[in-house]
């Protein structure tokens, strides 16, 4: 499959979602955030992934307007935080995010975590936003198969995207197979395992074989596994390096080597047992 930085995946409703984008988690310093997004857009990134929790929706909107790129050419994702979940609360939270971003619509709106008491009602609100054409794509984040099954049993519109922790040490093959069965695209929010996989000897050996960095090997592996990726960085050189994954392809043997690295190891929290104390 030929890919470039602006390659897309066709979602179940026909919308084209970029396979590669910039995650802006932990970008809390205003100028740094604006510069990182500006650099990414200049390099060719066409998706920006934020969340109300990140506290930088205003800067995301500003950077996109400043870029001079047409709004419709950039795929913008944000998420409703856990304390804002539930049907009415989600609708209100969406309005706040939309205002901060200073946009007329969003491309994708996600339930950030599957809060047991509210995630079903939260998704029902996301369906309404879709019906009202305020979002182009419905989705969720950090949902296991059993969460998705609950939504699918009631939903009028199946989630089109599930954004989860996914990297060589947590390959999530069963969840990916379930999502594929229902046409749900999978995005990796931690494609490099928060950097925790980059010193793996197998990955370093493959990187040396092909003259690429460990990060580039892992990001290319994701693309060849049909996973959408949103690597995070505020460093200009790293933003550029992460995008230089389209001039090589991993062989089947190298892909098979990567498969052996799964440990079912999380660097983040488990969607069945999460707690945030802030």
From TrEMBL:
The keyword DNA repair does not apply. Residues 26-262 form the NADP-dependent oxidoreductase domain. InterPro entries: AKR, Aldo/ket_reductase_CS, NAD(P)_OxRdtase_dom_sf, NADP_OxRdtase_dom. Keywords: NADP, Oxidoreductase. GO terms for molecular function: oxidoreductase activity, acting on the CH-OH group of donors, NAD or NADP as acceptor. Gene3D superfamilies: NADP-dependent oxidoreductase domain (3.20.20.100). The active site is at residue 54. It is an enzyme of class 1 (oxidoreductase). Signal peptide: none annotated. The record marks 79 as: Lowers pKa of active site Tyr. Its EC number is 1.-.-.-. Substrate binds at residue 112. Belongs to the aldo/keto reductase family. This is Putative oxidoreductase YtbE. It comes from Lysinibacillus sphaericus.
């Amino acid at each position: 499959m030929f890919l470039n930085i602006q390659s897309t995946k066709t979602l179940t409703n026909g919308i084209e979602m970029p396979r590669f984008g910039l995650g802006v988690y932990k970008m809390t310093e205003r100028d740094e955030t604006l510069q990182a997004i500006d650099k990414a857009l200049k390099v060719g990134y066409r998706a920006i992934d934020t969340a109300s929790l990140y506290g930088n929706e205003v800067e995301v909107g500003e950077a996109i307007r400043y870029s001079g790129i047409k709004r419709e050419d950039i795929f913008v994702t944000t998420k409703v935080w856990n304390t804002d979940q539930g049907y009415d609360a989600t609708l209100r939270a969406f309005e706040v995010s939309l205002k901060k971003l200073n946009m007329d619509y969003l491309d994708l709106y996600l339930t950030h975590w599957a809060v047991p008491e509210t995630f079903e009602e939260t998704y029902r609100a996301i369906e309404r936003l879709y019906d009202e054409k305020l979002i182009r794509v419905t989705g969720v984040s950090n949902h296991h198969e059993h969460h998705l099954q609950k939504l699918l049993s009631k939903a009028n519109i199946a989630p089109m995207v599930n954004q989860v922790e996914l990297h060589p040490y947590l390959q999530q093959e069963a969840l990916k197979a379930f999502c594929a069965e229902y046409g749900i695209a999978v995005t990796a929010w931690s494609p490099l395992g928060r950097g925790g996989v980059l010193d793996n000897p197998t990955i370093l050996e493959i990187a040396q074989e092909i003259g690429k960095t460990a990060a580039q090997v892992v990001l290319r592996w994701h693309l060849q596994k049909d996973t959408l990726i949103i690597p995070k960085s505020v460093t200009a050189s790293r933003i550029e390096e992460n995008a230089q994954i389209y001039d090589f392809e991993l062989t089947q043997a190298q892909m098979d080597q990567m498969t052996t690295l799964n440990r079912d190891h999380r660097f983040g929290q488990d969607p069945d047992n999460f707690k945030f104390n802030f």
